[in-house]
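name: query_chain
kind: protein
chains: 1
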Amino acid sequence: MQHDFTSILRHFHIGGGPADVAAVTRGHINDTYVVTTEGHAAPVRYVLQRINHTVFKDPLRMMANITRVTEHIRAKVLTSDPEMAPRQLTVIAAHDDTGCYEDAGGNFWRLYNFIENARTYDTLASTELACEAARMFGWFQRMLLDLPGPPLHETIADFHNTPRRLEVFRNVLAADAHNRAREARSEIDFLLENASICDILPDLAKRGAIPIRIAHNDTKINNVMLDEHTGRGICVIDLDTVMPGFSLHDFGDLVRTAACPAAEDEPDLSKVTIDLSLFEALVRGFAREANGFLTPAEKEHLVFAGKLITYEQFIRFLTDYIAGDTYYKVQHEKHNLDRCRTQMKLVQCITERQEAMNAIVRRVFDSLSAGAT
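structure:
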């Protein structure tokens, strides 16, 4: 689809017009472009995105969240580390002072600053990278503890509502519209045998042991910007799912995506495991920022959180397979089945190694309490 970028950019508070527009092929939800503008003393780059309003049904409320969060963080960084403030993610306002522009075709567009001399990583090259990425997600939560005003909007309803995910699965299984359940009997049995874990975090929340915080809800390592030269974390990006949630969900998804060296759809299950050195690096980084605000129950359930979020993703892949691949893009007929088997194996790995993982968590937090660096 061709877009009139010159016309689109006229609706934002920037100087100059586009000299170059380059599509970014990474990412599966929004359409992303790097725009270089002319009319300044030097070229200025921005990140322009067409928001997928099929997934995010209320872009204005979502952008209200993102604007509140980014402005709050930038104001705090301006006080604590002024040199880093210009490198924080910034929403460029549209002319009506909202966070996005709706064109005549019903497309919603947003514009961010381009953070120069920074990069993201899709895979973990070292434990140092794992530690710094995890630290940044802990930092992100810490920076938002004092966000003033009402709660953020919910951008995707029931996103980490695991009991609700289980309910949807049961309905899809009962219908079995594509006669696929017979291909996944052992996976279905495993899912149902472990269903009781879905209620553990909601029960802790009801008792007041874990609070509702502001969560990122998509804590992949490529959502952290790192300085190209120093490797230091600069900011957290991809804030579409930032909304009220559990801190544990963020750490759990970090474990799921970063502590296992295998791909999410790895068919060779012998490659699916938990790398304890990566896990310890994640704990060290996250704890460095989060130690001061996590409750005892949150600290005690960090390993469980990894198991729960992996189980939740297992539910989602299996649900989509039985439903006929209606949500996730697939490359072959059993792609979602491969994905759910990988997640099931990872749940089993975490269960088998949870004693060693819990010992790592205790050791890291004990060292912080003792004042170790």
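note: The first strand starts at residue 18 and ends at 24.
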